[in-house]
Amino acid sequence: MPDTRQFKAHETVPENMHIYTSNRLNEPCWYVTAPWNDGLDGSMLRSSRIIIISKKTGYVLYDGSANDEG
C-alpha cells in the first residue's frame, strides 16, 4: 500500500504536465499526483502519474501518464 504522503492534490494541472485524454475536462477537477505503485524500480526515468477526479461527481476521469518525462 502506498504512503498517503505521496499523494498531492492540486486545483489546476501542475506545471510541466501535459494531459492528453479524450475525456472532456470542462468541469472543475482535482489533479492528484500519485505513485505508480507497480513494483518497478523507482530510480528509472519515466513520467509521473496523475489522477483527474471530477469535483462534481467524484468520478475518476483520467488515471495515467502526466507526460512530463524528460
The ordered H/E elements are EEEE
What is the overall number of helices?
A: 0
* Number of DSSP strand runs: 4
Mean pLDDT: 80
Q: What is the 3D form?
A: globular
Largest sheet: 4 strands, antiparallel
Uncertain runs: none
In whole angstroms, the N-to-C terminal distance is 27 Å
Residue fraction in strands:
25-35%
Helix-residue proportion: under 10%
Structural class estimated from helices and strands: mainly beta
From the alpha carbons, calculate the radius of gyration and give it in angstroms: 12 Å
Strand arrangement, major sheet: 1-2-3-4
Describe the fold and architecture.
With 70 residues, the protein is mostly beta strands. The chain has strands spanning 8-10, 29-34, 49-54, 60-65. A 4-stranded antiparallel sheet has the order 1-2-3-4, with no helix packed on it. It starts with 7 loop residues before the first strand and ends in a 5-residue tail after the last strand.
